[in-house]
Specification:
- By secondary structure, the chain is of the alpha/beta class.
- It has one domain: Rossmann fold (3-Layer(aba) Sandwich), CATH 3.40.50.2300.
- It is 35% helix and 19% strand.
- The protein is built from 5 helices and 7 strands, in the order E-E-E-H-E-H-E-H-E-H-E-H.
- Strands 4-3-5-6-7 form a 5-stranded parallel beta sheet, with helices on both faces. Strands 1-2 form a two-stranded antiparallel ribbon.
- Helix 4 links the parallel strand 6 (99-103) and strand 7.
- It is globular, with a radius of gyration of 15 Å.
- 34% of the residues are buried.
- Bound molecules: calcium ion (CA).
Length: 150
């Protein structure tokens, strides 16, 4: 499927036997290898993954799909990830979606920029996936429990 010219993947395996809720994560990342790597790591964790190769595609996709969380590479061609995050946070349709910035360097400047742009957290590359999963867990709001269970 192709939506807004982005690669668009749906992962059909349920997150668990007990519920159908699959948090949806949008990855905005221009480097194809990184998109593939990150989505391959997130899908087995039970996340549905949406991919966009730049902010110009990612912003409308975020508005249309309302993902549960966005992983935003900050170094993007065209609009950078900081600007894209500010736009997401300024748009009522997307302002409540948590954003984790993916930065290239563990620099204090990036931490400050991430906070200033309105990012909810940030992760430096190369990504530590155990750590990233903890951050995602913390930020994704608790799913609605299935009705009439125990
Ligand atoms: Ca990049």
């Amino acid at each position: 499927m192709n939506l807004f010219g982005t690669e668009y993947y749906r992962h059909c395996q349920p997150a668990s036997k007990n519920r159908n809720f699959m948090p949806k994560i949008l990855i905005v990342e221009d480097t194809e290898n990184n998109r593939v790597l990150i989505s391959r790591r997130l899908k087995p964790m039970g996340y549905e993954v949406l991919l966009a190769e730049d902010a110009e595609r990612g912003l409308p996709l975020a508005e249309a799909e309302r993902p549960d969380l966005i992983l935003m590479d900050v170094g993007l061609p065209g609009m950078d990830g900081w600007t894209a995050t500010r736009r997401l946070k300024a748009n009522a349709a997307t302002s409540n979606i948590p954003v984790i910035a993916l930065t290239a360097h563990a620099m204090e400047g990036d931490r400050i920029r991430a906070m200033e742009a309105g990012c909810d957290d940030y992760e430096t590359k190369p990504i530590n996936f155990a750590q990233l999963q903890d951050k995602i867990h913390r930020l994704i709001s608790n799913p609605q429990p299935p009705a009439a269970t125990g």
